[in-house]
C-alpha cells in the first residue's frame, strides 16, 4: 500500500504541463532555450524548479544563488505543503489572469507568483525560528519584486497577485485561500502597537488596485474591495465596499469574486 501511495504522489499533471509548454516555447523561440532549460527542463519536479528560480532571482553579492538554492531545497523537502500551495497559486494565476495563457508564464515571467513563492520559503524559515534569514528573504523579495510581505504573515493557497507592484502585507496579517489582489494593495496597521494589528482577509476575497485595508479588522469571505478604497472597519461576507473611507455599496455580485475578477460596482438594484 505504501508503494502505491508513493507512485501516485509522483504524478504531477501541473508539472507535466509546464514541461510540455517549455518544450513548445523552445520550439517557437530557440533563443530562449538556455533560460527554459535551466529554469524548467533541467529539473525533475516543480519544487526543484521553484528552488532554482527563487535562488536565481534573490541572489546578490550578499548571498550566493548556491546558498539560497540549498535553503529553498531544504524548505521544499521539509514541508510538502509549500509545493502544494505553489501548484494552487500557479493554477489560480492561469485561471484568473487574462494575460496568462500558459502555466509556464508565472514560473518564468510573473513577479507576483515568484514573490509569493519566495515569501513562502521565508515564512517556513520564520516558523523554524530562523528569523534573521527570513528577514533577509523579505528584504530581497522587496528589492527584486517590489513586494513587501512580512515573513510572519499567514497566507493561504490559490493566491493571485496581478502586476504585484507595491504590495505590502504586514506581520500579523492573515490572507485566506483563493484570494486575488491587484497592484498597490496594502494590508497594514494603524499605529505603533506591537500586538495583533493587521487585517484578516477571508477566503475568496477580491481586492482592487490601490486598496488599503488597515488595522485588525476582518474582511468576510467572498467580498470585494473596490480599487482605491480605504477599509477601516469589518466587511461582512459576500459584500462590496468602496470609497474613502470604504462603505458597503452592494452585494459581491457572484459566489466567487476572486475567481471571476469582476471589479465593476453593482448597480442600485443590486444594493
TrEMBL record:
Q: Which domain of life is it from?
A: Bacteria
Name its pathway: Amino-acid biosynthesis; L-cysteine biosynthesis; L-cysteine from L-serine: step 1/2
Key words, A-Z: Acyltransferase, Amino-acid biosynthesis, Repeat, Transferase
**Reactions this protein catalyses:** L-serine + acetyl-CoA = O-acetyl-L-serine + CoA
SMART domains linked to this entry: SATase_N
Record-annotated Serine acetyltransferase N-terminal domain positions: 14-118
The EC number(s) this enzyme carries:
2.3.1.30
Coiled coil start-end = none
Name the GO cellular-component terms.
Answer: cytoplasm
Pfam families, from UniProt? SATase_N
Broad class of enzyme this protein falls into = transferase
Give the Gene Ontology MF terms in alphabetical order: serine O-acetyltransferase activity
Which GO BP terms sit in this record? cysteine biosynthetic process from serine
Q: Which InterPro entries match?
A: Hexapep_transf_CS, LbH_SAT, Ser_AcTrfase_N, Ser_AcTrfase_N_sf, Ser_O-AcTrfase, Serine_acetyltransferase, Trimer_LpxA-like_sf
What family does the database annotate? Answer: Belongs to the transferase hexapeptide repeat family.
Protein name as annotated: Serine acetyltransferase
Amino acid at each position: 500500500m505504501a508503494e502505491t501511495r508513493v507512485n501516485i504522489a509522483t504524478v504531477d499533471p501541473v508539472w507535466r504541463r509546464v514541461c510540455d509548454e517549455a518544450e513548445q516555447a523552445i520550439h517557437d523561440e530557440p533563443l530562449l532555450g538556455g533560460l527554459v532549460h535551466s529554469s524548467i527542463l533541467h529539473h525533475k519536479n516543480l519544487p526543484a524548479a521553484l528552488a532554482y528560480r527563487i535562488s536565481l532571482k534573490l541572489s546578490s553579492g550578499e548571498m550566493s544563488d548556491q546558498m539560497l538554492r540549498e535553503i529553498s531545497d531544504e524548505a521544499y523537502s521539509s514541508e510538502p505543503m509549500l509545493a502544494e500551495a505553489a501548484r494552487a497559486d500557479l493554477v489560480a494565476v492561469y485561471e484568473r489572469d487574462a494575460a496568462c495563457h500558459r502555466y509556464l508564464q508565472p514560473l518564468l515571467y510573473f513577479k507576483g507568483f515568484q514573490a509569493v513563492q519566495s515569501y513562502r520559503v521565508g515564512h517556513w524559515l520564520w516558523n523554524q525560528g530562523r528569523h534573521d534569514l527570513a528577514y533577509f528573504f523579505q528584504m530581497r523579495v522587496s528589492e527584486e519584486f517590489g513586494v513587501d510581505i512580512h515573513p510572519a504573515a499567514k497566507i493561504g493557497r490559490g493566491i493571485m497577485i496581478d502586476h504585484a507592484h507595491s504590495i505590502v502585507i504586514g506581520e500579523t496579517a492573515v490572507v485566506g485561500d483563493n484570494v486575488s489582489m491587484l497592484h498597490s494593495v496594502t494590508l497594514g496597521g494603524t499605529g505603533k502597537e506591537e500586538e495583533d494589528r493587521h487585517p484578516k482577509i477571508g477566503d475568496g476575497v477580491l481586492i482592487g488596485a490601490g486598496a488599503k485595508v488597515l488595522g485588525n479588522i476582518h474582511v468576510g469571505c467572498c467580498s470585494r474591495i473596490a480599487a482605491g478604497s480605504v477599509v477601516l472597519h469589518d466587511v461582512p461576507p459576500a459584500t462590496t465596499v468602496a470609497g474613502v473611507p470604504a462603505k458597503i455599496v452592494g452585494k459581491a455580485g457572484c459566489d466567487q469574486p476572486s475567481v471571476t475578477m469582476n471589479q465593476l460596482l453593482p448597480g442600485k438594484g443590486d444594493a
